[in-house]
Each structure stands twice: as structure tokens, then as C-alpha cells.
Specification:
With 117 residues, this protein is of the alpha/beta class. It contains 6 helices and 4 strands. A two-stranded parallel ribbon has the order 1-2. Strands 3-4 form a two-stranded parallel ribbon. The chain starts with a helix and ends in a 9-residue tail after the last strand.
Length: 117
């Protein structure tokens, strides 16, 4: 619920930053998240480290987009198609890709057992 809303509590923000500090101290090469909705936290993570940050698989959209012709369709599978819609501007700002372009097909998996966010 927190990832889909894009809102962290102050306590979670503090722990999120501590986790990034811990990863930095361990010498990681990059920092990733495990939920597409963590795109909401991409900027916060990036501001808190100098390591490359990919909080969401959506950060890969620019690379995926250039791998296919303009006429080919690209599926974006998400835990919830409805809650992805408010992220449109964020995805455009962070990735330079508009998920509402014709070439993208949003597939909401909210009714697929085991695909809960």
C-alpha cells in the first residue's frame, strides 16, 4: 500500500535513508527496488547516494523502448493498472517515456493470484 500510494511515513523515510547508507557502506555498485511503484522513491534514493539507483523496473523503459521499432508494442505488467495511471507524469519525468503512448500496453495484474504488491 505504501509503494502504490507513493507516500512514506517519516519513520519509513528515516529507515529508507539508513538502508541506503548501509548499502553504501557495504560498497554496493548500485541500488535497486523490488516493486514498480518504488519509482515514487527514485528521487529520494538518488538524492541520498552517489550510486546508480533503479528503484523500479520502470527505470528500464528507455532501454527497452529503443530496442524495438516504433510500430512494435511493449507490454508493461504491473501489480495494479489503475494505481499506475497517476504515475504517468513521474514516469515521463524520470524516464523520458510516456506510458500512455500507443506503443505501450499496460497490463494490470491485480486479479492474478500471487501477484499482490
Amino acid at each position: 500500500a505504501m509503494c502504490q500510494s507513493g507516500q512514506m511515513t517519516p519513520k519509513v523515510v528515516k529507515e529508507f535513508k539508513e538502508a541506503i547508507d548501509w548499502l553504501d557502506a557495504k560498497g554496493v555498485s548500485g541500488i535497486t527496488g523490488d516493486c514498480g511503484f518504488m519509482m515514487y522513491f527514485q528521487e529520494l534514493a538518488r538524492r541520498h547516494t552517489r550510486k546508480p539507483v533503479f528503484m523500479s523496473a520502470l527505470a528500464q523503459l528507455p532501454a527497452v523502448t529503443c530496442a524495438y521499432s516504433r510500430n512494435e508494442l511493449i507490454a508493461i505488467f504491473t501489480a495494479n493498472g489503475t494505481t499506475l495511471t497517476p504515475m504517468r507524469n513521474l514516469i515521463k519525468d524520470e524516464c523520458g517515456v510516456d506510458p500512455e503512448e500507443r506503443r505501450f500496453v499496460i497490463v494490470g495484474c491485480e486479479d492474478v493470484p500471487g501477484f499482490e504488491a
